[in-house]
Amino acid sequence: MSTETTTASEQRADRPAYRYDAEMAARIERKWQDFWETEQTFHAPDPGQPGSEKPKVYLMDMFPYPSGAGLHVGHPLGFIGTDVLGRYLRMNGHNVLHPMGFDAFGLPAEQYAVQTGTHPRTTTETNIARYRQQLRQLGLGHDPRRSVSTTDIEFYRWTQWIFREIFESWYDTDADRARPISELRAELEAGTRPTPDGRPWAELSEGERRAAIDGHRLAYISEAPVNWCPGLGTVLANEEVTPDGRSERGNFPVFRRNLKQWMMRITAYADRLADDLDRVDWPESVKAMQRNWIGRSEGARVRFPVVGSDDAVEVFTTRPDTLFGATYMVLAPEHPLVFSLVPAQWPDGTDPRWTGGAATPAEAVAAYRAEAARKSELDRQENKDKTGVFTGAYATNPVNGAAVPVFVADYVLMGYGTGAIMAVPAEDTRDWDFAAAFGLPHVRTVAPPSDWDGGAYTGDGPTINSANDEISLNGLGVDEAKRTIIDWLAAKGAGEGVVQYKLRDWLFSRQRYWGEPFPVIWDEHGPIALPEDQLPVVLPDVDDYSPKTYAPDDANSEPEPPLSRAHEWVAVELDLGDGPKQYRRETNTMPQWAGSCWYYLRYLDPENTERFVSAEAEKYWIGKNTARSVADPGGVDLYVGGVEHAVLHLLYSRFWHKVLFDLGHVSSEEPFRKLFNQGYIQAWAYTDARGTYVPAEEVVESDSGFTWNGQPVTREYGKMGKSLKNVVTPDDMCDRYGADTFRLYEMYTGPMDASRPWSTRDVVGPQRFLQRVWRNLVDETTGEVTVVDTAPSEEILRSVHKAIAGVRADYPALHYNTAAAKLIELNNALTKRGTPVEREVAEALVLMLAPLAPHIAEELWQKLGHDDTLAYAPFPVADERYLVADTVEYPIQVNGKVRSRVVVAADAGQDDIRAAALADEKVVAALDGAEPKKVIVVPGRLVNVVR
Hints:
There is one protein chain. By secondary structure, the protein is of the alpha+beta class. Among the domains are: 16-39 and 763-884, Isoleucyl-tRNA Synthetase, Domain 1 (Orthogonal Bundle); 48-168 and 268-291 and 597-678, Rossmann fold, CATH 3.40.50.620; 297-500, Isoleucyl-tRNA Synthetase, domain 2 (Alpha-Beta Complex), CATH 3.90.740.10; 885-946, Ubiquitin-like (UB roll) (Roll), CATH 3.10.20.590. The strands form 9 sheets. It has a 4-stranded parallel sheet, sandwiched between helices. A 4-stranded antiparallel sheet has the order 6-5-7-15. The chain is globular, with a radius of gyration of 35 Å.
């Protein structure tokens, strides 16, 4: 929204020559940014180099995607926060590594390429250059040697190398760690590990051997249910599908289909991913989100034989104690057994509500599957209207021999359990609703309270209606009933106790161009990892960056990635040790997550051409510190970013890191030791009478409201962004106020972990504070410092050391708003005193200010006669002598109302405090000659007089 501002020339026209204004700030900031770059001020020494003997700290931000829009003022909040901490820690004798890079693969650059024909690399590199300039302008103390982009060929060479390591690994559940595939092959050859069908390894064909090994790999090809969008010609992530089952981009229909895709076997690490959350210093809310995503649950796998068939439907249930109440079954529409169960005709007596109006079960199931394919998983989970059709098949409940009908319904997903459920409507609300819609019975197996008013009862209680000729659960509690029925099922061969996870294996391929190529070739038997010496596999240039698209409703179409049209690149002749052969390259690309899974490691050793990171650098910067804790897992000392990455990015990074640990490539067990989620910058947005957003900076505020081009507009509050037309750029703020003012404003407006409103008109407050600091130390007419070399008074020393103690506590705790408030309070005291500032006081103030406003602090430090940068100057330490108060102020209440205040010696006794309070003239007047009934002294706090 518009505010009154003056240009730099207007400021200079009627102001002293050396007043700190936007123009002077710009000169000072450019000077010191050039100095830091030339002098390599923020180059962090590696192990063995001078300076590496200091205690190390690795600070890191979640790196940005370099969009064409550049940064807005919300983006740098976390970046500035880590910079403040890094500067403070350097001044306290630490070797600080603070790098920055770019998460540069992804869809926006590819979309721009499709629209304009501009190569995505050209767009990406242009955007990165702009981001670098914007970040430099903010005075961030990054080590520029360590900056990486995920699109750098030398970077994604190592992304491909890590994928190759994962592909060439398997998870040994006995050892509870990943091992090289070569060791699995050796065990199969030696017969110490059986083949899938038990035949000797020597009797298997080459294809059978490859299949046996591929079935164990941590990276593998699988038929997976995916979100297929024919209109866009690509598979979409769940986050890219709207609740009504359409693509966010283009609003095309999205279908759930089984397609061959690359998968990562992250489920092998489910227990370790959950258990090791106890070893990291993360917000409890984030840990809870990860645990919920992993979704560990204990229960039983139960087999229901299909009537008249050799098939059986397997279900996973966390409540096997309710088996006697299972009155029907449900398969997910994508379940592989669906069509093999379907009979030719409906069984006699089939309820018409079950058929969907179709003449045969096959017609009903096909129509329902097509309908379900149009819905997103979110819609299927949250839709309260239960739909489904009968398959025409029945299965046998193993505990009572009852034949239960088998339905297909979209409220069951293939992504959890087995993709099939035993439905117990009396104890499950969703099952109850489905049973009510289809006229299915319910049998209670848990006794509800006597005052239960009907419907599904999901609480605990004694087991009822649960007995056969061999077993009775009646009267047992839930836990005992579970153990009893699991033992019985195992003895009968009808089931077993298992641990199940909500976590699914990670879908790891995209039908897009602008991503990392897989280091994989194919022959007639399947995928083969390229040898290390043939990496990197570089993206070829193509004429058309878009995948093949189809009619939006063509659900049966097949993906055709852009790389599949690069025929000369796809077909390749290689000699892998058995003579030249023809192969074809993988034409899918990796998802954008790939580079962000490990970029924190490359920062440590970005020029290494032999390894993705040297063992020495990894151990020094993120290795375990058993002196800190015997359970310390290692990792980045502080990782700062938005809570929107609380699950997927962090979970995927942890998975990759644990694989690398298992294979001996890193010494740390976790990537991020400590996590901090910063808040967001929010801003007002404005809509006109049509509901269309208008540029916020053009809106005028008056007593009667808000107008744009003379027309009234409506104000609303939201996240800053282009779509709301309320973006404010850091470039604009630096031009109008200076980078130090902008930094200070962002840090002062609230706690780092809290979201806060943006108000351009309030930026002038931090600017005035910096102007007052400057004015207290520098003559605005001559530009000379005005400090004196006399000793400060005890009173001002108390103010200085109180500020030092407070700021030293606030900076490492990331309480920058309160640190700034303490500095403002100190500077106000100096301003109010009105005499020249003593050197001891001035230098302490400048050093304390430096982390928040480094450019002006460097300039003042130089003016104070110092030749070296203050980036490594010792941060002030409070003198305890000046932190002990000589006096204490007591508020005095008379009948509960504060009437006055009295100052007494800090060591005054209660009698002296009481006497001083009663002698106060306001208290005497309030008593009006009466004797107080009681005088209560609360030491150090207040005096309460009862009249």
